Here is the input.
Amino acid sequence: MKQNLINSLTEIVGEVNILHSGAEKERFTHIWKTDIPLEAKAVVFPNSTEQVSQIMKYCHRENQEVIIHGGLTNLVGGTETESNQLVIALDKMNAIQEVDVQSKTITAQSGAILEHMIDAAAEKQLLLPMSFGSKGSAQIGGVVSTNAGGLRVFRYGMTRQMVLGIEAVLPDGTIISSLKKTIKDNSGYDLKQFFIGSEGTLGIITKIILRLSEAPSSRSSAIVGIKTYDNVIKVLKFLEKNLAGTLSGFELMWQDTYKAMTGESSHLNPPLNSEYNYYVFVESLGSQPKEDYSRLENLISESIEMELIQDGVMAQSERELNTIWQIREDVSILAAQANYDQHFDISIPIPLIGELVKKATEELYKLPFVERVFSFGHVADGNIHYIIGKKDNTPEIIEAINQIIYKPLKEVGGSVSAEHGIGLHKKAYLHTSRSKEEIELMKILKKTFDSKNILNPGRIF
Ligand SMILES: Cc1cc2nc3c(=O)[nH]c(=O)nc-3n(C[C@H](O)[C@H](O)[C@H](O)COP(=O)(O)OP(=O)(O)OC[C@H]3O[C@@H](n4cnc5c(N)ncnc54)[C@H](O)[C@@H]3O)c2cc1C
Here is the structure.
C-alpha cells in the first residue's frame, strides 16, 4: 500500500522531490524542534499548482491523510504529524512572481518566505506591512492560512486585510483560482476568505496576491517606561491623537519579560533600566524623517512632563532602531529561559488587560510547578501573549495553567486565539470563544470542502 503511494507520488513530482523510507526523518514539524525526527509516510515537495492538484486527487481517491507544511513556525501544533500521514511541503513553490507598482500588489507562490516578499516590495518603494519575529522562516501560504497578525495590525490590519487574490487546491484536487488584483469584488461569495485563517483545513493555498502600501520614508521608534497600566492606555490615546495617523506600533512588555529579554541570558542590551512596571515600544511611520522624529520625541517629552511616562529613549540610528525592536520581536530569548514553554495568545478588551494579567500572573505563581511567567503583546489590538516556563510538562500541569489563562475570557468577551489560531493545542478551548452554533457551522463547512476529512484533519475542532 505504502509502496503504491510512493510510486504514484514519484510519478507526479519526480524522485528528487520526495523523501521516504527513512529519509523523511531528516525533517521535523517545527523550527524549534529540529532534533525530533518527523513521523510520516513521506514528504512530498510539489513544484506547481498542477502537481498539488494531482497529489490531492490521488490522496482523495485513496483516503490518504495529508498535513500541509509551510515554514513550520506556528505555535499551536498545526504542523504536527502522525506516522500514517503524508506531508506536502510547499518549500519549492517559492517564486515571487511579480511586484506590480501600478496596482500596488505582490504575487507569489505560497512557499515564498515572508521576509523575501517584504524585501521585494521595498525594492520598489512599496510596503508589505506584515511584521513579526518569524518573518525570516514563515511562508506566505502559512501566514495567510493562519491570518497572522503581528506588530502593525493596529494600523494596517490582519493578513486578511491585505489579501486580494488566492489560488487554492481543494481536498479533492479541484483548483480554485481567484487571482484578482482588484480591491472591490462583490460578485457573490468572497470565496478566498474561506482559505484565510482556516489553518489549511479547507484547501492548500498555492498562490497569493497581496495588496501593498506606499513605503513610508520615515521610521521613528522609541521605548518608554511606564508606572501604571492606566497610564499605558492614556499614552496610547495621547500618541494616537497627536501622531496624525502615523502611529503604526504600540507594543507592551511587562517588567519581568523586559528583564529576561535584556538580562544576563540575553545578548541584547537594555536601552532603559529595568525599574519600570511596563515598557512600551512605539513606532511611527511617516513621510518626513526629521519632522516625524521630532514630533515623536516632543510627544514623549510632553508625556514625561505630564507624568504619564517615567522615562523614554528614542532610537537615533538604524542600529538602535533594530535593537529596540529585537527586544520586542526575538521571543526565542524568552522561550530559551522557560522550561517546557507553554505559549498563549489571547484577546482581552484593552481596558481590562492590566488587571487580568496581574491576577493571572499571581495565580500562576501560586502553582508550585510554575517557574517563569512572561507577558507581552500587541496591547493596542487587545492581544496579549504569555510564555510560561514550568518544572514539568504533564497533561495535569498544562491543564492547570490553561484554566488560569482561559477561565476569564468568556465572561469578558475575549478570545483563546487572537492570532496564532487553534491548531491541535487549543481545540479543547474553542468553545470559550465560539458558540455551539458557530462551531457547528464550521463543521458543516469542513464537511462541504473535505467530505473525507483528509486535509489537516483534527485541526481547530
Ligand atoms: C518567533 C515567532 C514569532 C511569531 N510572531 C507572531 C505574531 O506576531 N503574529 C502571528 O500571528 N503569529 C506569529 N507567530 C506564529 C507564526 O509565525 C505565524 O502563524 C505564521 O504565519 C505561520 O507561517 P508558517 O509558514 O510557518 O506556517 P506553518 O507553521 O508551516 O503552518 C501553519 C498552519 O498553516 C497550514 N499551512 C501552511 N502552509 C499552508 C498553505 N500553503 N496552504 C494551506 N495551509 C497551509 C499548516 O498546515 C498549519 O496548520 C510567530 C511565531 C514565531 C516562531
Observations:
- Residues 68-75, 78-79, 90, 110, 132-134, 138-139, 141-143, 145-146, 148-150, 199-200, 204-205, 331-332, 419-420, 456, 459 surround flavin-adenine dinucleotide (CB under 6 Å).
- The chain has four domains: 2-91, 96-214, 218-332, 338-420.
- The chain is about 30% helix and 20% strand.
- The domain at 2-91 is CATH 3.30.43.10 (Uridine Diphospho-n-acetylenolpyruvylglucosamine Reductase; domain 2).
